[in-house]
Write a structure and sequence with these properties.
The chain is of the alpha/beta class. It has two domains: about 5-275, UDP-N-acetylmuramoyl-L-alanine:D-glutamate ligase (3-Layer(aba) Sandwich); about 285-410, Protein-Tyrosine Phosphatase, Chain A (Alpha-Beta Complex), CATH 3.90.190. About 40% of the residues lie in helices and about 15% in strands. It has helices at about 5-20, 20-25, 35-45, 65-75, 110-120, 125-140, 180, 185-190, 210-220, 245-260, 265-270, 270-275, 300-310, 330, 355-360, 370-385, 395-410, and strands at about 55-60, 80-85, 95-100, 105, 145-150, 165-170, 200-205, 225-230, 285, 290-295, 315-320, 340-345, 365-370, 390-395. The chain has an eight-stranded mixed sheet, with helices on both faces. A six-stranded mixed sheet has the order 9-10-14-11-12-13, with helices on both faces. Helix 15 links the parallel strand 12 (about 340-345) and strand 13 (about 365-370). Helix 3 runs parallel beside helix 6. The longest helix has 15 residues, at about 125-140. The chain is globular.
Length: about 400
C-alpha cells in the first residue's frame, strides 16, 4: 500500500490519541479495558486469526519478555517460523510484533501496519486490543509455525487470553499493578493463572508457599497439568541477556522447551537478544564509561538490579526516573545510598516530575535534571570525572527507551 513516512507517523499519532495506551496514559478507562468480549468481537471481524497458528502464552510480573524472546530464539533455531508479540516497545512501535526465523528477525513492515489501521473498524477498541489484533492478523497472514505471545497485564482478563495455546507459562509473581491485580502475591498469581486452559500444560517459573497453592488450585479446577521449572534437570549457561534474573528466566525457557519436545539450541539461546532484537535487559550502551540500562521498574526487579550494582564495587551514578503510579515507597529503601542520582522525568503525562521525585528522595545525593537527555548528559560528564564508575539508567521503561534513542543517535 502506498503511503508516505509523514502519513505513517500521523496515523500512529492518531492511534495513540484516539485509543490511549497504558504506556502513555496509564490504566485509564480509555486505555485499559479488562475482559475478552471486545477482543473476541474484533478477532471475529478479522476472520479469527487467533485460531490460525499454534501459540505459546507467557505471563508473569517480571521476565516474561525475556522468556518469550528466549523461546522465540530457540524455536527459530529448530527451523520454525516464529511470531513474537511483546510489549511495550522501547523505540519503534513495530518492536511489538516480530517475525523470528532461522536466518534472522524482522519487525512487521510499516506497510502492513498502515494497511491494517486504515482498512479496519477500530472504534471502541483499546490500544492494546488493536495491537493484539494486528499481531494475530499478521502472524496468520505470515503463516507462522508458532507464535510466542506475551500477556500485556495480568492474564485472566488480558486481550491475548482469547488464545488456546499449546503451553501456558507464568514466569514470576511480584507486587506490581496492585490496584488492578490485587494487593498480595497470591491474588496476583490468581490473575496470572487465568491463562491456564483445559488440557494445556501450564509451567510456572517459581514455586513458593504463597503462590504455589494458587497455581495448584487453578490447575485442578481447569483442569490442566501443572509443572514448576525448578523440577526440571537443566544446565544453565550465560546468554547475551546479562541481567540478574536471567538465570531463572533461562531455566523457565529450558523447561518450556522440554515440555514442547524441542531440543534446546544452546548457541541460539546464548544469543537471544541478537536473534530477536530484544533490548533494555541489563544492556551495555557504552563501554567507556560503562553505561548499563535495564527496564526493571517494580520493587522485585529493582531490588535485584540495585543489589547487583552494589556488588560491582564501583562508584555508582544512576539516571533515575519513575512513573507516578509506581510504588516509590517500596522502591526507595532498595536504592543504594552511596550512589549519586540524576533525577529525570521521561516524556508523557504519567511520569513523576523530577522535582517531585527529588522531594521524595530527601537524604539521597541527587541532581535534578528534568528530562532524560539532560540527565544522561550530566551523568556521562560525571562518569568521565569519576574513574572506574558505573552509570546505570533505569526506573522506568520510558527512561530506558529515551536513553537508548540518545545513544543510538550518537
Amino acid at each position: 500500500m502506498d503511503y508516505t513516512t509523514e502519513q505513517y507517523n500521523h496515523l500512529l499519532e492518531e492511534l495513540y490519541n484516539r485509543h490511549p495506551s497504558v504506556q502513555n496514559t496509564g490504566f485509564t478507562a480509555g486505555a485499559y479495558k479488562p475482559g475478552l468480549a471486545g477482543m473476541e468481537r474484533f478477532d471475529a471481524a478479522l476472520g479469527h486469526p487467533s485460531r490460525q497458528f499454534r501459540a505459546i502464552h507467557v505471563a508473569g510480573t517480571n521476565g516474561k519478555g525475556s522468556v518469550s524472546s528466549m523461546l522465540a530464539a530457540a524455536l527459530s533455531a529448530a527451523g520454525l517460523r516464529v511470531g513474537l508479540y511483546t510489549s511495550p516497545h522501547l523505540v519503534d512501535f513495530r518492536e511489538r510484533i516480530k517475525l523470528v526465523e532461522p536466518d534472522g528477525w524482522s519487525m512487521i513492515p510499516r506497510e502492513e501496519v498502515f494497511r491494517f489501521l486504515t482498512e479496519n473498524d477500530l472504534a471502541d477498541l483499546s490500544f492494546f486490543e488493536i495491537t493484539t489484533g494486528l499481531a494475530f492478523w499478521w502472524f496468520a497472514a505470515q503463516q507462522v509455525d508458532v507464535a510466542v505471545i506475551e500477556v500485556g497485564l495480568g492474564g485472566r482478563l488480558d486481550s491475548t487470553n482469547i488464545l488456546t495455546p499449546e503451553l501456558a507459562v507464568v514466569t514470576s509473581i511480584g507486587l506490581d499493578h496492585c490496584a488492578l491485580l490485587g494487593s498480595t502475591r497470591g491474588a496476583i498469581a490468581a490473575e496470572k493463572a487465568g491463562i491456564f486452559k483445559p488440557g494445556v500444560p501450564a509451567l510456572c517459573g517459581q514455586r513458593d508457599d504463597e503462590t504455589a497453592p494458587v497455581f495448584e488450585a487453578r490447575a485442578s479446577v481447569v483442569p490442566c497439568p501443572l509443572f514448576f521449572a525448578e523440577d526440571f534437570d537443566v544446565e544453565l549457561f550465560d546468554t547475551d541477556l546479562a541481567g540478574p534474573c536471567q538465570a531463572a528466566n533461562l531455566r523457565t525457557a529450558l523447561a518450556a522447551l522440554e515440555l514442547l519436545g524441542i531440543e534446546p539450541d544452546r548457541e541460539a539461546l546464548a544469543h537471544t537478544a541478537a536473534r530477536t532484537g530484544l533490548r533494555g535487559r541489563w544492556e551495555r550502551l557504552c563501554a567507556d564509561p560503562e553505561v548499563i540500562c535495564d527496564i526493571g521498574h517494580n520493587p522485585p526487579a529493582l531490588e535485584i538490579n540495585f543489589r547487583r550494582l552494589r556488588e560491582s564495587g564501583s562508584p555508582l551514578l544512576i539516571v533515575f526516573g519513575i512513573m507516578a503510579d509506581k510504588d516509590l515507597d517500596g522502591i526507595k529503601p532498595l536504592m543504594p545510598r552511596d550512589a549519586h542520582y540524576f533525577l529525570v522525568a521521561p516524556k508523557g503525562n504519567r511520569a513523576l516530575p523530577a522535582d517531585a521525585l527529588a522531594a521524595r528522595l530527601e537524604g539521597f545525593r541527587r541532581t535534578v535534571c528534568g528530562d532524560v537527555e539532560a540527565g544522561v548528559r550530566q551523568a556521562l560528564e560525571a562518569a568521565r570525572r569519576t574513574p572506574g564508575s558505573l552509570l546505570y539508567i533505569g526506573g522506568s521503561n520510558f527512561v530506558v527507551a529515551e536513553a537508548i534513542g540518545l545513544f543510538d543517535s550518537d
